[in-house]
Write a structure and sequence with these properties.
With 638 residues, the protein is α/β, with parallel strands linked by helices. It is built from 29 helices and ten strands. The protein has five domains: 6-180, Rossmann fold; 186-247, Helicase, Ruva Protein, domain 3, CATH 1.10.8; 252-363, Zinc Finger, Delta Prime, domain 3 (Up-down Bundle), CATH 1.20.272.10; 490-590, DNA polymerase III, tau subunit, domain V (GMP Synthetase, Chain A, domain 3), CATH 3.30.300; 593-636, no CATH class. It has a five-stranded parallel sheet, with helices on one face. β9, α27 and β10 form a beta-alpha-beta unit. α9 (206-215) crosses α10. The radius of gyration is 38 Å and the shape is elongated. The N and C termini lie far apart (98 Å). The relative contact order is 0.05. It is an enzyme of class 2 (transferase).
């Protein structure tokens, strides 16, 4: 027995067997049930979505004789058993005239076709003309068809199909009911392939079906043909490795491995994945395209998790990966990827272009260059090893320097150059470098302990002018100066002042509001923390209550940044977030900032209204003060 390919064997024979295209199916079924039939239908869409299949089903609906018992009328559910239905399924129904317009473009062919329109059907109820790829007809052929297409005999129906409706004359389009068939989404293709292979008894890997669904590009017929090829390639089974080798496409798992390395900030693993990819001889430009597509899906997963495209069947994995990135990192990586794609034409080779693009993504992260012995790790070691000294700097007066031990001159230098915890955090690297160089010089010369005057004079005589302006950047980081951060450097922490609800040294919500600006947070981390209320502090872990509207932006990197800031502030803690509705009785740092800004604005407006010069202008010229343009300055706060 000859083998029948899956695309023909599983071709739908009724509307209810049709996969997808529910909008077209509904319109045609209702028209058939109500007897509201048009004389010409136009089916448009890409290859393999069911245009010809729909036309043949419609032809059976028009000519079904209900199991041969005579004329039972038009139906939307053809029996499939009568002579007409069987003849149409087998392609031998004389009243279904199928024409390939691509091979019969001449006007003579069209006129010959139309000469038989006037004759009644031989076998069925209607004579059906199915013209495939109708856009290939010549202009003269369309002109010959127009009159008949507009007013055909009552026993004739025209069913036109095309992949390019833009090439059809407007006069033809206006004479037809047009139905646009949609692309088949990969989910629908995989669902149908799962059913077909189950019925056929063919073993398969689900991941292999997703590769086939992606490669089909919306065409169910192409998906079935590729499945036939995969079964032959895999000796009766559809396996992931076989399908990937057959298609010659990039294995999506390699791209996800690159994204994993980006999430871990692991440069060594990133380059190792590229080296492994190069052994397969891929198109590195396609690799970068696929990587940027994944970054786009990660950004969508952070904002609207349920809207993530599932074309690869990895929606859950994408949602998990999205939580390991910050939103600014994903946006930066995407922009660098797009720019790197355009720069590939100027690179010496595509592999180096891909590697440089990936390295650029990590090099320009807001957190710094991820080198094994460079910025991120030394900063963490300095934070952990000097936590006690920084806490002493934050809470001890300058006079404590006299009690410093002889072999450790570094703390006095840090104390002079960093009067506040925020300044210590923001300028940790330059201060540490100067302090270490001074320490090396002093240890080589075996100098006696420095006095405060000597430290100050040494700082003034230093050839590098950077340390002098170090105490000044704090007002630049906070345009609206708050009175709270000022006493932080010398007296007890602000967070225990006026706090009776928490034990001494622990943080309560009032303390969280008081110390927020002094933490020196920036970027998305500051925005996220500003929408939080302090839930609890047990001396080891601080729990922050997060506004549910900001939950999509939460990531582990923010926990680490806030924990480092609190450690620099003198309160080493772990950070945990809980997503819950905020208490209306408490302010978040953002709400507090907005309230204070409104108060300063109101005060500035009041001062201007009471200014004698302003009053004179109003009286003399009828001037009006535009309150929205008033911007309060620190001097306006009294």
């Amino acid at each position: 027995m000859s083998y029948q390919v899956l695309a023909r064997k599983w071709r739908p024979r009724t509307f209810h067997e049709l996969v997808g295209q529910a909008h077209v199916q509904r319109a045609l079924v209702n028209a058939l049930d109500q007897g509201r039939l048009h004389h010409a239908y136009l089916f448009t869409g890409t290859r393999g979505v069911g245009k010809t299949t729909l036309a043949r089903i419609l032809a059976k609906c028009l000519n079904c004789t209900a199991n041969g018992r005579g004329d039972e009328g038009i139906t939307s559910t053809p029996c499939g058993q009568c002579d007409s239905c069987q003849a149409i399924d087998e392609g031998r129904f004389v009243d279904l005239i199928e024409v390939d317009a691509a091979s019969r473009t001449k006007v003579e062919d069209t006129r010959e076709l139309l000469d038989n329109v006037q004759y009644a059907p031989t076998q069925g109820r209607y004579k059906v003309y199915l013209i495939d790829e109708v856009h290939m007809l010549s202009t003269s052929s369309f002109n010959a068809l127009l009159k008949t297409l507009e007013e055909p005999p009552p026993h004739v129906k025209f069913l036109l199909a095309t992949t390019d409706p833009q090439k059809l004359p407007a006069t033809v389009l206006s004479r037809c009911l047009q139905f646009t068939l949609k692309h088949m989404p990969p989910e629908r293709v995989v669902e149908h392939l799962t059913y077909v292979l189950g019925e056929e008894g063919v073993a398969y890997d689900e991941s292999a079906l997703w590769l086939l669904g992606k490669a089909a590009e919306g065409s169910m017929r192409d998906a079935m043909s590729l499945t036939d090829q995969a079964i032959a390639f895999g000796q009766g089974a559809v396996r992931h490795a076989d399908v990937a080798a057959m298609l010659g496409t990039l294995d999506h798992r390699h791209v996800l491995a690159l994204v994993e390395a980006l999430a871990d900030v692991d440069v060594q693993q990133l380059l190792a994945e590229v080296a492994q990819l190069s052994e397969q001889g891929p198109d590195f430009a396609a690799v970068l395209d696929e990587l940027t597509a994944v970054l786009h899906r990660l950004a969508v997963a952070q904002m609207v998790p349920d809207a993530v495209d599932n074309s690869h069947g990895d929606r859950q994995l994408i949602q998990q990966l999205a939580s390991r990135f910050t939103a600014e990192d994903i946006q930066l990586y995407y922009q660098i990827g797009i720019q790197g794609r355009g720069d590939m034409v100027h690179a010496p080779d595509l592999r180096s272009a891909l590697e440089m693009t990936l390295l650029r993504m990590l090099a320009f992260r807001p957190q710094g260059v991820p080198k094994p012995s460079a910025t991120p790790l030394p900063l963490r070691r300095e934070t952990s090893s000097n936590a006690a000294s920084q806490e002493a700097v934050s809470h001890a007066p300058v006079s404590n320097e006299s009690t410093a031990k002889k072999p450790e001159p570094a703390p006095p230098i840090n104390q002079v150059n960093a009067p506040e915890p925020a300044a210590v955090q923001e300028n940790a690297e330059p201060v540490t470098n100067e302090a270490s160089s001074a320490l090396d010089a002093s240890s080589e010369q075996q100098a006696p302990p420095w006095s405060l005057d000597e430290v100050e004079s040494a700082a003034m005589l230093s050839p590098e002018p950077e340390p002098e302006p170090e105490p000044e950047p704090e007002p630049e980081l906070e345009p609206e100066p708050e009175p709270e951060p000022e006493p932080i450097s010398s007296e007890a922490p602000v967070h225990v002042v006026d706090s009776s609800s928490a034990p001494a040294g622990w943080l309560d919500h009032a303390g969280w509001l008081a110390c927020f600006n002094a933490l020196g947070l920036g970027g998305l981390t500051r925005s996220l923390a500003a929408h939080c209320q302090l839930e609890s502090d047990d001396g080891h872990t601080v729990v922050l209550r997060l506004d549910p509207n900001q939950a999509a932006m939460q990531a582990d990197v923010h926990n680490e940044r806030i924990a480092r800031a609190l450690t620099s502030y003198g309160m080493p803690r772990r950070i945990e977030f809980m997503t819950a509705e905020l208490s209306t009785a408490l302010e978040t740092p953002r709400q507090q900032e907005e309230r204070l800004q409104q108060e300063r604005h109101a005060e500035a407006v009041d001062l201007l209204h009471r200014d004698p010069n302003i009053q004179k202008l109003q009286q003399a010229f009828g001037a009006t003060l535009i309150e929205s343009s008033v911007k309060p300055t620190p001097e306006s706060r009294s």
